[in-house]
From TrEMBL:
Organism, as annotated: Cognaticolwellia beringensis
Protein name: PH domain-containing protein
Annotated SUPFAM superfamilies: PH domain-like
Domain Bacterial Pleckstrin homology: 17-120
Alphabetical list of Gene3D superfamilies matching this protein: Bacterial Pleckstrin homology domain
Length: 122
């Protein structure tokens, strides 16, 4: 499992093609909403959960998939990008593991992600 405790996760940039890495993990009624990546690692938001992908090893053939179901979220916070500071952040508090933080680079619309999380919380 990814160690969310010791660091903020990685700076993510939107990349819809990254979602292909998790298609075999999806349930029949689960849809991909958006996906983000760094050089190798990434995060995929679905209609049911967040899947964090940690690519390991020199060749990148070994991967760790961490499933973070929306149903375990107790609170979350988003920080949108501004005029000069284009980075945005998402902090999610899970009942079992605590705080998970994602940082996004560039213009990233946090509104869609916020709506999905809210739909499962409210």
């Amino acid at each position: 499992m990814i160690d969310f405790e010791n660091k903020g996760f990685f700076k993510l940039k939107q990349d819809i093609d990254y979602a292909e890495k998790v298609t075999d993990l999806l349930l029949e009624d689960e849809q991909i909403v958006d996906s983000y990546k760094t050089m190798r690692d990434g995060v995929v938001f679905t209609t049911k959960r967040i899947i964090a992908v940690n690519v390991q090893g020199i060749t990148g053939s070994k991967k760790d998939f961490t499933s973070l179901p929306y149903k375990n979220i107790v609170a979350y916070s988003i920080e949108t990008s501004g005029t000069f500071d284009l980075d945005s952040e998402l902090e999610i508090y899970f009942s079992a593991i605590g705080k998970v933080r994602f940082e996004f680079s560039g213009k990233t619309s946090m509104l869609e992600v916020s709506k999905i999380i809210s739909s499962h919380l409210l």
